Amino acid sequence: MSNSSRGLNFERKVRRKLERHGWTVIRAAASKGPADLIAFKAGHDNLFIECKIGGRLDTEDWNSFYDMCQELGVVPILAWQKKFPCIISMRRLTGRKTGRNGDPAPVEEYALSESDPDDE
Fold this sequence. Notes:
120 residues; alpha+beta; Trna Endonuclease, Chain: A, domain 1; six-stranded mixed β-sheet; 2 helices; 26% strand
């Protein structure tokens, strides 16, 4: 399976998880939009979601994504798949990356709802 096929399959899994939690989701085909997925739910802040199977965004991409989300007033989310077990994790970007080795990435876990099951 190609990297693009794996990426598309992962985006679909993330989308299904969001929809199970009552979110309306729009996909930016071939990542041509500001994020892989955009999610809306009444009473919640809008989400811009980058889907990365390995959970990694380089410093430049991280900071560009974070800055854009701050300008637009949306929540920047990094969705990634833990390998064992295969669980989708949602992390909110809380700041810019420094790019220095050893500095922790500024993130926090993001729950889609009060009861956020880890099922896919």
